[in-house]
Amino acid sequence: MKFSWKFDPVAQTLHAPSGTKITVREIAQLLADRRDCRHDFHGLWAGWKMRRQFLIPPYAGKHGPKLTPDNARRFAEWVAEPIAADRATRRSPPPLYLVR
Predict the structure, then answer these.
(1) DSSP sequence for 41-83
(2) What is the reported pTM?
(3) Would 41 disulfide with which of 9, 17, 45, 91, CB 3.0-4.6 Å?
(4) pLDDT above 90: residue 25
């Protein structure tokens, strides 16, 4: 017997072939979250949130630390500073010439 998607207009619920029930409210919230770039991550990134262009670490409040594209770039430059300074202090090898 083939079971397809069914919509219950009274409960405003979609019934999937797997038996899962999805409300219209959940679908609307998912679409609004995508539109507003609002994500709550799972798995290895559990607890991290994305709100617009801000990546927010776990347990950080609304006014807590945030990672933005701009300060991520600055952080990467700050991390690379000691490496760049170390390269600048090293002497370059003497030039080699081909002698015939």
Answers:
(1) --GGGTT-EEETTEEE-TT--TTS--B-HHHHHHHHHHHHHHH
(2) 0.52
(3) 45
(4) yes
